[in-house]
Amino acid sequence: MLREFAPPQDWPGPAILLIDEAQGMTGDMSNGESSLLKALHEGRHGFPLTAVLSGLSDTLQVLRALGVSRLSEGAAHALGPLSASECREAVAALLSRHHVKGGAEDRAEWAGAIANRCNGWPQHLHNYLAGAARALIDAGGDLALAELDAALEHGDRTRVNYYNARLAGLAPAHGAIRSILSRIPDAGLLTGEVMAMTQRAASGAGFDSGPQLYQALLHAGVLHEDGALRCHCPIPSFRRHILDTLSAEPESPLDP
Hints:
Layout: H1 2-5, E1 15-19, H2 32-42, E2 49-53, H3 59-65, H4 84-97, H5 104-118, H6 122-138, H7 148-168, H8 174-182, E3 189-190, H9 191-201, H10 210-219, E4 224-225, E5 230-232, H11 236-245
Parallel strand pairs: 1-2
Antiparallel strand pairs: 3-5, 4-5
Helix pairs in contact: 4-5, 5-6, 5-7, 6-7, 9-10
């Protein structure tokens, strides 16, 4: 259909196809998603087109299941969180773009507060910026009159909702998830040790095997492989949310 309405020879130049939430693709090598991805990967479509896929840390496993496994060197990148300065720049850009009234001191206070709260996670930054926009609308676009606490509360609330949505499909495993994360330090743990924990916890968490539970935790963003054979929870506030709100197992299968 694309060839019919926009033949390759009519394109003014190369284009980039962005596919977000790529970890959500499902199926195997027999379905339509697999055919599309392989055509993009192998360049068989005839268009000046480059595909860029973004997703959580299990995206590579999803692509392998769909038949895309021989990626060129340097094709996969772990982006990591935004820096504090990048978050402050995003807040400053919002205020400038919408001609918000307010002095340098107020702007710095808002930028610093939001940067400190969002952990460098783009989704959280977006939610805190939405809270800032709501507070500024209520204040007529004047930072001096806007309620910073209201903006932060909106971001806090949407962050909790985001985490609860990530965990909703893993309800039978909540106790196991808390037990596993309580044993992984901030700096992470060797992936093999984490996989051994998921193996011991799997049956009591409603999973058939340790690898199945491990993949579910990667898919939900609870765990992230850092490329150095280590595994950790990528968002500090997500880790705190899990440890603070999920109920611990009365007798953990992870205990010796």
